[in-house]
Amino acid sequence: MKVLNVVDDFCTVEINGVKKSCFIGFLERKPEEGEYLLVHAGMAIKILDYQSAQEIIDELALLIDGELRDSE
Amino acid sequence: MNKSFDLFKDRELAKKLFSHIKSKVSHFSNLKIMEFCGTHTHNIFQYGFRYAFQPNLKFIAGPGCPVCVTSDNELAEAFWLLEKRGVGVITYGDLLKVPYNGKSLFDYRSEGFSIEIVYSAIDALSIAKKKSDKEWVFLGVGFETTIPATSALLDLVVRTGIKNLSVISFHKNTKSIISALGSLGELRVDGILLPGHVSAVVGWQYFNDINAFGIPSVVVGFEPLDILYGIKELIDMIEKGERGIKCAYKRAVQEEGNRKMLDSINKFFDVTDCNWRGLGNIKNGGFEIKPEYSIYNARKRYKIENIEVLSKQNQCLCGDVLIGKIEPIECPSFDVLCNPDAPLGPCMVSHEGTCLAYYKWSRING
User: Whose CB has fewer CB within 10 Å in chain A, the N or C terminal residue?
Assistant: First the structure.
């Protein structure tokens, strides 16, 4: 869920146009506007790490490209 | 900073990865993979993966629906609190229609009993403050994902000194259930997709007990590419004969989990034996409020002891569905006597329930 604003221990997050309030007191740091959170039952569990996500996508793209080359 | 994670919904990459997995599993016959988490069960249906790899690979739904594994004993406690102590009950909406002995919290609410629904546990505080002429009990339901929310509520109750709110814990320990299933010989699977949300709280090493059963496992996220990537990783492990746990959801899950949440759970809760629907009493299967906070524990405050559990016979086989023994369509009541409007058991009620997933997505996907 995308962070829209942060006030004290709470923030407003948005997913598919729906806005919700969530508690961020358990996060390792305060999230910034525009960051994405993993949220469950109104509790933010983790600020999602974009670099880790991109690494997996890159790994998959490489795997698929390699297969296409092998099949040619 | 504005980096979307929609890249895990990339249709083209998903198609190619799907073909890759399809080709890999064609070398196997009758592989069985259990998805522990109820949300995964629904997503595997929603994305069209459930039957896509058959007959080579079959998915088996596991016990990862917290409302579904809430036992009759616990529902009996909630009903007793309403009837015998006249308190109001606050809980998550999913629990409302779960039947016990022919009745649900929804039925109680229709009869005028005070039952409030919350999105988050900490919302219970404002209800208790607003309706201060009544005593309220929050029913804490769920796995390690929702326990921190109950801990946060307990922390607020302690700090504010509010007198008319207490908590009863129906919380379950996912770590114990893997061992229990293995010990019962019910883990007859080649691999396990481990839950993403729970792992984000507890860390993926939490599930190391699986190693005792020699079953490879992968922590998985919830988008289409997350699930496909998790399946690919699991197939790779099975192919190579690898054991252990891998994490395929690293943007959300770390080895050690969320330290603050774990500290909060440890502050307010002890691990205790607990009754799970379908599995009975599980050693270390639940969480109970620590003795030093017993004045906030509704079991102690209202002296709940040995409530007789009544079992009105019905033809619900939720227990067998929860441990992957049968598929919902093998239950004689499925879509005959039992449907979302008239559920016989919790698996047809909860949005994470396996029976509801089969009912809903089989219709949509044909």
Answer: C
Q: Where are the domains of chain B?
A: 68-173+257-301
Q: Is B43's pLDDT higher than 90?
A: yes
pLDDT tens-digit map of B66-114:
888 899 999 999 999 999 999 999 999 989 988 888 899 999 999 999 9
Of B20, B120, B260, the CB nearest to A26: B260
CATH class held by domain B68-173+257-301: alpha beta
Domains by residue range for chain A, with CATH: 2-71 (2.30.30.140)
Nearest to A53 among B7, B261, B264 (CB): B7
- pLDDT given at position B136: 98
- Are the C-beta atoms of B60 and B32 separated by less than 8 Å? yes
Between helix A50-71 and helix B224-240 the angle, nearest 10°, is: 60
For B53-66, what is each residue's pLDDT tens digit? Answer: 999 999 999 888 88
Distance from CA of B119 to the nearest CA of A (A): 6
Q: What angle do CA B23, B26, B28 make, to 5 degrees?
A: 135
**β-strands A18-23, A10-15 pairing:** antiparallel
Interchain proximity A20–B119, CB inside 8 Å = yes
Does the beta carbon of B146 lie under 8 angstroms from any beta carbon of chain A?
A: yes
